[in-house]
Write a structure and sequence with these properties.
There is one protein chain. This protein has 157 residues and is α/β, with parallel strands linked by helices. 27% of the residues lie in helices and 18% in strands. The protein contains four helices and eight strands. It has a six-stranded mixed sheet, sandwiched between helices. The longest helix has 18 residues.
Length: 157
């Protein structure tokens, strides 16, 4: 069974006036509902630890999948601004606690360091991330994809 599921956000709309924090496209939403949502209960029937990036597309991905983020952090994908060290503004949504991360280690080792630290904690986790961040794990980016991350490594589900 997975210790961490990484779920990449779906395809987003390319809008001329929205460059930084675009919403999901209809195709992306459909892809999540048809191909990703049915797979989650196989790994985590009732996930409690859900982390995500700070972009609208990350929150939309979580909502469509029936997940309720408990923490968010820009290391998983950016979109909104940090209000202070502990809170992220998440568009028109309520504020969530920021996952406390050591800045030094994050910049030195990035996502791989964070995932190793999260594996040390009890409980399974789902993390909604930006597809392009998977490059830090030597994985080619793909929209709306699930990866299982364990101490043995990462694999596409």
């Amino acid at each position: 069974m997975a210790e961490i599921l990484l779920i990449t956000s779906a395809q987003f709309e390319r809008q001329p006036m929205v460059l930084y924090n675009p919403p999901l496209s209809l195709e992306g939403k459909r892809n999540l509902l048809e191909n990703i949502k049915p797979k989650i209960p196989k790994y985590f029937p009732s996930p409690k630890n859900v982390l995500c990036g700070t972009g609208e597309r990350h929150f939309q991905t979580a909502e469509i999948l029936g997940l309720k983020p408990t923490y968010c952090d820009p290391i998983f994908g950016c979109g909104d601004l940090i209000k202070n060290d502990e809170i992220i503004l998440s568009g028109n949504r309520k504020m969530l606690p920021r996952l406390y991360l050591s800045i030094t280690e994050c910049f030195n080792d990035g996502l791989a360091w964070i995932l190793k630290e999260l594996l040390k904690e009890n409980g399974d986790k789902i993390i909604v991330i930006d597809p392009f961040i998977t490059r830090e794990l030597n994985v080619e980016p793909e929209f709306a994809t699930i990866y299982e991350y364990t101490s043995a490594g990462i694999r596409k589900v």
